[in-house]
Amino acid sequence: MDRIAGIINLDHEQDFLEELTYFRCGAAVPYAGRYRMIDFTISNMTNSRIDSIAVFARRKYRSLMDHLEQGKAWDLDRNRGGLFILPPDWNDPTDLSRGDLQHFHNNIDFIRRTLADYIVVSGSQSICNINYLEVLEAHKKSGADVTVVYKKIRDLQPEHNLAHKLTIDDSDRVMAIHNDQKSSNVYMDMYIIEKDYLYYLVENCIAHNCSHLFLDGIKGRLPEIHINAYEYQGSHALINSVESYYRNSRKLLNESAHDELFKEDSPIFTKIKNEPPSKYEGLSDVSNTLVANGCIVSGHVEDSILFRGVRVGKGAIIKNSIIMQRCDIEENAVLENVILDKDCKISNGRTLIGAPEKPFVVAKRKTM
């Protein structure tokens, strides 16, 4: 059976989430009540029997390393293969590479030594639940050099303006990769490629002074190379702005949308924290809300997401908001259309109201 290794390439993912990425990279941003964004990428790989995964991280990765640890949550703390967090090696005097090719060049041993026949390369901004074994099967059947994954989006949103789009012929061959804002074929920043061909592309791109493997080595070689397109048809959210984070997070309050992403046969894993069940006190009133473990709720909460360990005081009102870990909402505070990062404190009687299309965001550890 063909084996697959995984590379999660965070190098080109900019910090588009404003206050939420002041102190962390986008991949480490909390999502859906108890997860981080990178949890979905890693879980997709491990659910597809990928047991050797490298993470290419360049900036603000302390929080990411703290969350991933040795990969135990995904059964990746093993003697062979496992999880590797690989910042670029700045100490190689012979290194002429730049851009994300620095990661591929300086960590080429990961590619060279893996026993896998194929490599899946993915970012972390596409939240989905995908089976890469099905992508591999389509890739082998097509005979392509590279197979890219895309989602056909009928109702395009502002976040899709920044994504690459695909022009595809009747045989699923990619004819063009572009930024046409009207195109519905949204590239999900993931592709599968044979290991030896990836190695060749890396060496060739560096020799020609390129800086981006996908843009220069794959997109830039059309129509020289055969690129196949695989259409993913499941739940998908592209997170590259505060607005897209807020809107797609709150979509999970819909039960069918939640169940489409969190499937029983392909679970999403995350770092385990042993906390007690949430407690609802006195006159608390909670409706249409995701509530994680360890919360103590004494106020009114509706249409919101509470992460682990949130405290909501008596008389407090929370609507249409996302409250991250260990935030303390004191008595009679009012929050509407708000995102609170971790460890924030909202004082007694304080009112914070954002707009539905532009939530009010508070950076971590702030007291207001």
From TrEMBL:
<feature type="domain" description="Nucleotidyl transferase">
    <location>
        <begin position="20"/>
        <end position="155"/>
    </location>
</feature>
<keyword id="KW-0808">Transferase</keyword>
<dbReference type="InterPro" id="IPR056818">
    <property type="entry name" value="GlmU/GlgC-like_hexapep"/>
</dbReference>
<dbReference type="InterPro" id="IPR011004">
    <property type="entry name" value="Trimer_LpxA-like_sf"/>
</dbReference>
<comment type="similarity">
    <text>Belongs to the bacterial/plant glucose-1-phosphate adenylyltransferase family.</text>
</comment>
<protein>
    <submittedName>
        <fullName>Glucose-1-phosphate adenylyltransferase subunit GlgD</fullName>
        <ecNumber>2.7.7.27</ecNumber>
    </submittedName>
</protein>
<dbReference type="InterPro" id="IPR011832">
    <property type="entry name" value="GlgDAde_trans"/>
</dbReference>
<dbReference type="InterPro" id="IPR029044">
    <property type="entry name" value="Nucleotide-diphossugar_trans"/>
</dbReference>
<dbReference type="GO" id="GO:0008878">
    <property type="term" value="F:glucose-1-phosphate adenylyltransferase activity"/>
</dbReference>
<dbReference type="Pfam" id="PF24894">
    <property type="entry name" value="Hexapep_GlmU"/>
</dbReference>
<feature type="domain" description="Glucose-1-phosphate adenylyltransferase/Bifunctional protein GlmU-like C-terminal hexapeptide">
    <location>
        <begin position="285"/>
        <end position="351"/>
    </location>
</feature>
<keyword id="KW-0320">Glycogen biosynthesis</keyword>
<keyword id="KW-0548">Nucleotidyltransferase</keyword>
<dbReference type="Pfam" id="PF00483">
    <property type="entry name" value="NTP_transferase"/>
</dbReference>
<dbReference type="InterPro" id="IPR005835">
    <property type="entry name" value="NTP_transferase_dom"/>
</dbReference>
<dbReference type="InterPro" id="IPR011831">
    <property type="entry name" value="ADP-Glc_PPase"/>
</dbReference>
